[in-house]
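ZP: hey, is the fe (ii) ion complex queued? I don't see it on the tracker
AM: it wasn't, my bad. submitting now with these inputs:
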Amino acid sequence: MKPIGMLMWEHRLIEQVIGLFPREIAKIGKSKRVDTVFIQVAVDFIRTYADLTHHGKEEDILFRILESHGLSPELHKIMEGLINDHVYARNLVKGLVEANEKYISGENTLSVIVNRLQYLADFYPAHIEKEDKHFFHQSMRYLDASEQEEMLGEFKDFDRRMIHEKYKEVVERLAGGKVSWTPPGMVR
Ligand SMILES: [Fe+2]
Ligand SMILES: [Fe+2]
């Protein structure tokens, strides 16, 4: 598998979650109530999977390595746009989390929640299409087979660390503070 194959495979799962948003928006419109657990679970998916794990591999590995290979001005411009997209998505999710927390504490933030869900539902398919059709394949021309193989290895290592980081954070939340622990076989 090419490294971009792994990223495109991940896109397919992200699409499935974002694809649930129009139905959720319609449900909120009809019931005038927000399923705050749906929002919490969806946010956890976006933050942990779509952002930390997926955008993380794109930014920390793919984009970093491509940057050192001197991309064409056109491709570089697309890459900058993708990085800005990631920032935009993070802000949308932050707004969604805040609105959901306010809703839970009794404030009527229903319209903000609907708005953020709609923006995310619009954003992700367009962002994914940009990468799938206009960036990933084009960018692989800058790497030979062994560099692609090495990148795939870095991706797998990145994913392996992620589960530990995610659950270390969960433990810290439960404990109410930092815990001193390093994942097995990893020196940090
Ligand atoms: Fe991306
Ligand atoms: Fe992506």
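AM: back. Residues 18 and 124 are 7 Å apart (CA to CA).
ZP: great, adding it to the tracker
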